[in-house]
Queue: 2 jobs
Job 1
Amino acid sequence: MAVYTEVTDDDLAHLIAEYGLGELMSYKGIAEGVENTNYMVHTSKGTFILTLYERRVNTADLPYFMGLLEHLNKEGVSCPLPVRNRNGEVLTEISGRTAAIVTFLEGVWVRRPKTVHCHAVGRALAELHLAGKSFPMCRSNALGLAGWHDINERLGAKADEIAPGLATLINYELAYLDRAWPKTLPTGVIHADLFPDNVFFIGEKLSGLIDFYFACNDASAYDLAIALNAWCFETDCAFNATKARALVTGYQSLRPLTAAERLAFPVLARGAALRFLLTRALDWLHTDRNALVKPHDPIAYVRRLRFHQEVTSPGEYGLEPAA
Amino acid sequence: MAVYTEVTDDDLAHLIAEYGLGELMSYKGIAEGVENTNYMVHTSKGTFILTLYERRVNTADLPYFMGLLEHLNKEGVSCPLPVRNRNGEVLTEISGRTAAIVTFLEGVWVRRPKTVHCHAVGRALAELHLAGKSFPMCRSNALGLAGWHDINERLGAKADEIAPGLATLINYELAYLDRAWPKTLPTGVIHADLFPDNVFFIGEKLSGLIDFYFACNDASAYDLAIALNAWCFETDCAFNATKARALVTGYQSLRPLTAAERLAFPVLARGAALRFLLTRALDWLHTDRNALVKPHDPIAYVRRLRFHQEVTSPGEYGLEPAA
């Protein structure tokens, strides 16, 4: 939540000209984006977001992310559209950082999602998956099963500094997922981080999706399992079955799950909970207490994981067997 | 440079409705404002700034600041206009903070001001002083000569931690100003903080002034002396006589200084330099090293003060005696 890199008025005016975006009217550094620096830019041609990519982003991945946004826009998915400069490029450089300009998407993210929002998110996720089918580029999921093992090795016994017994829980779960993780489910482009702060609404109408910097190719139903973890638990970590039913119903209104996806869903939900538990645990241990960005509490995902471990059938998520 | 207080979507949508500003489209916390939290808000009726006043602002002063902005707008000065809610009030409450909504002013602040900008700033400052004449409210300058003594007492010998000999320099200067400070110059509303980041330009055209939270009633020419310190020294603290001449010429194109103001100008310039030296020194000593907001370097104002101490005539600032 910070502006890591300053941009001068002269440099930005020059950039805006290169992009054919008219005259620079104003720009403000915005307190969003944990990893990158973002400016909201008004020009005589409209409102845009300028993103400067900081250290944690691998710039080799940017063509995939930018290409995906262009593809999704072409397919009618509402998300930011990268602007091409006069050389036809979407990536540029400013203040010593790789940077991109995308169209600004109106909408607010919902702090307390209701059932109606969950339905809309499920539907938008299915729309994204369908539109992604024709996207030709491929990026493997660095935060899949192998990546989880890597993070666990980095955590080691230190996980217990967060909560006693956490290292044992993670090792138990990884051993289970090594055996149970499905390998033949339908795959495609997934968002992989569809949390409430990445979905915009105007009133109750979903206006678009943002932040595709974890997007990759993986099992589609796993993406739905991530969204279920993100949207269908209350702040006290209680599972909300009504919201889950709304989410999966919204999703299946456009893309019904296969029988294999439905059966695998409890395992996918466990994997999704473990994925965020692991990265949050790592951030928790590696963020100094005076950091600008407060790390998310990993315990919320310990609780989700424990819930999923007790689930005995996909029906508990609102996924009924096919008639 | 931070968002100190979070605002939820529900609370803001409710507030927007109370202000009759249509539908909430988006809002972003902006990384500006050292003392307060600011959000840029898009509604179906336009773009606005929502400010939440944090601890350092005395809310008893807000009616003066808000009334001044309304008055200046009425007089044709380009600055943010407070929006009144359905009860006719400009101040409200959100997230436990006193808050106000003002219209958004397009423009960027100029990181490297040129002579043309200095002329425009001088002119705009005179415009502000003329428009302020008919403003009925009054606020004394807490950062006048008496206030400087107060800050010096808080600094004490600690000033020497910033630079050896600084305490002596400050005491010498305060003793001089006690004798030389003019008491009968024309007074009126002054901005009192017209630094480059508070003046917006679109291209070379000045689009407006912002941040009136130091505004008060004091000697008009002192405000020009503050602007001279802020605009007419290079980053290496060298005085730029061309920019100074442009600033005072722009000012006098609308409001010629009286003979007394011109003669007093070198003293006013010393006082203005000392005022920022003192507050910066205090911030420097009281800001912990991990703070979100980096304090400004007081030494830049030591250098300005030393320059002004050597000045022997108002002509050095471009202020020629009347013909």
Note: Chain B has ten helices and nine strands.
Job 2
Amino acid sequence: METAAVASSGAGRRIMVAVDEGEESLHALNWCLANVVSPAGGDTLVLVHARRPRPVYAAMDSAGYMMTSDLLASVERHANAVSAAVVDEAKRVCADHPHVKVETMVESGDPRDVICDAAAKMAADLLVMGSHGYGFIQRAFLGSVSNHCAQNCKCPVLIVKRPKE
Amino acid sequence: METAAVASSGAGRRIMVAVDEGEESLHALNWCLANVVSPAGGDTLVLVHARRPRPVYAAMDSAGYMMTSDLLASVERHANAVSAAVVDEAKRVCADHPHVKVETMVESGDPRDVICDAAAKMAADLLVMGSHGYGFIQRAFLGSVSNHCAQNCKCPVLIVKRPKE
């Protein structure tokens, strides 16, 4: 049967969850913990986060002057702090589910590539993500990250939307 | 918490699986049974199938003559037979999982509308589908059914690809 290669519930699956600074990705993580992860234990949750690469225009300020190395370092520090906060919050959510082993993976780059590459590299059995991560502007120009992953990742992709209040 | 409205594993979730004549949708169904449906029972699986509406050109044959009512009836019979076979096969797969309650739902129409409407009407907690159902031609003109559902259904959408041999 086609499912022979897929571990059955609780038999040590690697479930990857893409986390970003939007609350939708936290909702996706919660949904996955409540509905997909085996309550009997044995699954590994891999939290993957794409840290934005330093944008090109960051090398100059708005007046066209080169930014000082202090300012560049500050931009970099801010990006790192955001990444750390995102991953810490996701780990905190997972801490309520002690039967799940948690790993984290942070890479710089376009989230579409980071997430698909991570899913392939870690041989994920499932990729879970929100539908609208990574901002309106990026989505308008580059298309939805979740659409890209649903089309390009080899593993099953679960797209979870933010519930309407 | 956002997950409060979502039943936890095994607590009577309604999981909708879109089935068509492609083997990818059978794989999606199998993956769902092995990885999402609670082994403890309590979940309901709703098999939804979109029967193709009779195409407009079916009212005339290639020479432009009106088709006889016999021929129209035969086209209709064939479509019904295909639908019945798809649903029967999916039910047969589910029969190996007696802890799951199975319902079926067959509607005529564009699969994108049929599936999204069904998920809303049945208040599905999750929609599961293959990524490439409903044929190359339709996809080229209308876009992927799974992309449409991932963007437009309110519930989480799990897209399962056919494994590469």
Note: DSSP finds five helices and five strands in chain A.
